[in-house]
Amino acid sequence: MDFFETLFELKPFTVISLISTTIVFFILFSIFFVLDLKEEKANVIDESKKNTAISDNTYVNAEDMLFDFYNQYLSSSINETERHALIKKYCTNNMLETLDILYSFDDEEGFIIGIDYDPFLNAQDFFPIENIKIEETEKNKYKISWNDTNNIMVMLNVIEDNNVWKIDSIDIDRLEQIKKDVADYWKSKNKPNPKRFSE
Predict the structure, then answer these.
(1) Are 83 and 162 within one domain?
(2) SS3 of residue 65 by DSSP
(3) Are 55 and 69 in contact (CB under 8 A)?
(4) Which terminus of the chain, N or C, has fewer Cβ atoms within 10 Å?
(5) Residues 9 and 31 in one domain
């Protein structure tokens, strides 16, 4: 006698009870399974939040470094001091010296000498990044784009510095002219350009 023959020989109430118990069991099992997956996902997010801007990380490749840099750089949980430390951690001395020029600002006069936008974003304001894309266009040169659009993107050059991947330069329009303008300005003031990053 197989299972179904035995089942149909039972009283209707017993059959309904068995079916109900089985359904309840599968529903509870499904709920616990989904909750367990959510908990595992939450733990992964919590672990990533523990990474601070100045933590010591090593990266297998430049893409991982750039992805981590941008996720931390745009995080709402870090302040300007931590963002400054993040830049110093992920950039070479060459990039830091370039940033001194790009972010040149006359504190006494109160106006910008360099650029008035963030070179890492090619934009003036911080904004949430979605669907960040990091593409190597040629050796050690990367295009960063996001939010499913190519309207805003950044071209970065990276190098391996003491076995650590770092940002070495950013492609910026008129960079040489900006460098000349900043140098001329501080020369006219008979002062050196302030070192905001390379100090």
Answers:
(1) yes
(2) helix
(3) no
(4) N
(5) yes
- CATH number of 121's domain: 3.10.450.50
How far is 197 from 90, CA to CA, in rounded Å? 12
Q: With CA atoms as reference, report the closest residue to 119 among 89, 88, 153.
A: 153
Q: Which domain holds residue 12?
A: 3-49
Q: Which residues in 40-54 are b (16+ Cβ under 10 Å) and which e? A: eeeeeeeeeeeeebe
- Give the C-alpha separation, 116 to 96, whole Å: 17
Model's pTM, two decimal places?
0.69
Q: Rounded to an integer, what distance in angstroms lies between the CA atom of residue 163 and that of residue 177? A: 33
Residue 195 lies in a domain: no
What is the C-alpha to C-alpha distance for residues 93 and 110, in angstroms, rounded to an integer?
A: 27
Task: Specify the number of domains making up the chain.
Answer: 2
Residues 167 and 121 in one domain: yes
Say if 23 falls within a structural domain: yes
